[in-house]
Amino acid sequence: MKFSVLEKNLIKQLEVRIRDTTPGVMVRAYQGGRIICDVAVGQTYAYYDLASLTKVIFTTQAMMYAFELGKWTFDTKVSDVLAWFPHKETKLTELMTHSSGLSWWLPFYQELNMNLSLSERRDQLKTILQSAKLENHQTATYSDVGYIVLGYVLERFFDKPLVDVWTEIKEKFYVGTTLEMHPNNEVPMKVSLFAPTEECPVRRRLVQGEVHDLNCWAMGGVSSHAGLFGSIDDVGWYSLHLRSHLMGIARYSIRQKTAQLFAKRALPEGKGDWAMGYMMPTPGASSCGGYFSLKSIGHTGFTGTSMWYDPKMDMSVVILSNRVLYGADNKAFAQLRPEIHNWIVENYRRSGV
Fold this sequence. Notes:
- This protein has a single domain (1-73, 176-353), classed as DD-peptidase/beta-lactamase superfamily (Beta-lactamase, 3-Layer(aba) Sandwich), CATH 3.40.710.
- The chain is α+β, with helices and mostly antiparallel strands.
- β7 and β8 form a beta hairpin.
- Helices cover 35% and strands 12% of the residues.
- It has a 5-stranded antiparallel β-sheet with strand order 2-1-9-8-7, sandwiched between helices.
């Protein structure tokens, strides 16, 4: 395979830096809608556990679609949709911007009965969520719990189980991709095609092809906060899909006006760096490095995945890895991720690709 100067430089930089950080990494970058970088270093795989990229690829996309269908507005309260939700003044926008005050995470997997069906487990979890407390309204607190609640919202909006909501979203927006969830934690193809994540202390086995997130696993592999698996092609395609909507050149049902509304900063500075479901750069501490503009949007995943798009540079960067194989507490990848973005921008500018 013939590599560009940009790619050769990036490969050299990655070969040195991934040691003791991740078994391997795939990186793809687009500028102006065309690939300028496509490399794989170390041990890589066809498919990865996308972790919290699920929040934007599935849940934010589905919420935009529901918004277009007139099912909610930015003033809609969660309790307007879910009568059982205990916090009557909390808005759907607060769940999407992690500003509701709900806890960042709770060990639901310890309470769910794995012998129940998927629908019965969701009913059990709903009962647990009815006692969820609000902790902090002063600043945004990244919350899996809030996004799990959004899963119930989507079920009401589309009047079907969450796994079928995902199927509808895939058929409408992601036809031709291999993006998929694994209901009942059943892997539909060779396990060896999937990047292994971690020797799970709860499941007592190496997790491969099965969702890493324990709450999602206990929910049968289907959730609104995690659960998607996909390839570098899939996430790269998603980044182009997002770009197309923002530029008004998409041949899909989401209007440019809606896409841009959801991509705007939704919280005041100091409260949190969030658009409607998307992360935005935190100056001096962003996972997309120091060159991406403050209007950039993206998301990261706990397993070592991310996607960022900068409308100012018209550049997107997709990173897939299984950094958790070296331990969930391994923090080295958090330092590497912004470096990768910086290297791509610097190499691109030097090479004049």
